[in-house]
Q: What sequence folds into this?
């Protein structure tokens, strides 16, 4: 599990519009997506948007330190809510014999 500082830095990166590393998913036999790489990043994003933690230790967007998601301006909330990730889905292969 990521420490708070790393989560806050991820949120800061998204708010600044920086690209995140790609996310990788696989499909189970029912077609549901399973996170292969990126679970902690996704959890950090969704937990912040659920007001599970507040920002602290930010080095660039220092004015946002001690803010919860609910404290952010509508513009900044929109940056998080509308942020587009780069995702790759590894398709489930049928057994080849």
A:
């Amino acid at each position: 599990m990521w420490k708070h500082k790393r989560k806050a830095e991820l949120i800061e990166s998204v708010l600044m519009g920086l690209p995140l590393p790609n996310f990788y998913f696989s499909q189970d036999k029912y077609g549901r997506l399973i996170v292969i790489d990126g679970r902690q990043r996704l959890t950090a994003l969704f937990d912040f948007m659920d007001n599970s933690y507040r920002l602290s230790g930010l080095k660039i967007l220092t004015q946002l330190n001690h803010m919860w998601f609910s404290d952010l301006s509508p513009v900044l909330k929109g940056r998080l809510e509308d942020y587009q990730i780069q995702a790759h889905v590894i398709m489930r292969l049928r057994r080849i014999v």
Remarks:
- The chain has one domain: 4-90.
- The radius of gyration is 16 Å.
- The first helix runs from residue 4 to 15.
- Residues 4-90 form one domain.
